[in-house]
User: Which sequence fits this backbone?
């Protein structure tokens, strides 16, 4: 008998889940197509509701990067980053990550290209990317979908969590880095 590899199993998971869901729906005699179109309609209405906030957020991020304001802010905040044990070279990443995931990936790629992926700074950037969230994007999507206008403590709490994630990422990289 031939050995089934992990790639084969992982390739079969999604089709199996779909078949199981279809089988369960058939057993319950539910209209699967109607349920699917209802879900798609609801999904499109959610996208229509949150699209303006996403467009504004992404436009602001690209304007900040293109104008050089992000780089200037990184230079001004470098001493504060050093105080908290954060490499100043990661300042642009720290500033952009809560706003934009794709922007953060671009900045992380630039950092790793400049300093090397195996350098302390490159590893710190990689850990930061994996251990923090695009706070404003996430809040815009979820709160916008629910029509919540006042975020109350959600944004400050999320930004504190991001900051802790950045500091712990820097500490982890320093502790684990061998080079």
Assistant:
């Amino acid at each position: 008998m031939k050995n089934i590899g992990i790639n084969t199993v992982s390739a079969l998971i999604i089709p199996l889940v779909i078949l199981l869901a279809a089988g369960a729906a058939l057993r319950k005699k539910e209209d699967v197509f109607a349920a699917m179109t209802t879900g798609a309609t609801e999904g499109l209405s959610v996208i229509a509701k949150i699209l303006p906030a996403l467009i504004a957020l992404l436009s602001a991020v690209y304007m900040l990067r293109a104008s050089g304001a992000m780089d200037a802010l990184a230079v001004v905040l470098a001493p504060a980053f050093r105080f908290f044990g954060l490499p100043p070279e990661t300042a642009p990443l720290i500033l952009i990550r809560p706003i934009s995931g794709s922007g953060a990936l671009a900045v992380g790629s630039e950092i790793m290209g400049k300093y090397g992926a195996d350098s302390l700074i490159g590893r710190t950037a990689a850990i930061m990317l994996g251990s923090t969230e695009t706070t404003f994007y996430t809040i815009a999507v979820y709160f916008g979908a629910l029509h919540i206008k006042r975020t109350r403590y959600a944004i400050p709490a999320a930004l504190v969590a991001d900051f802790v994630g950045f500091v712990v990422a820097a500490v982890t990289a320093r502790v684990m880095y061998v080079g």
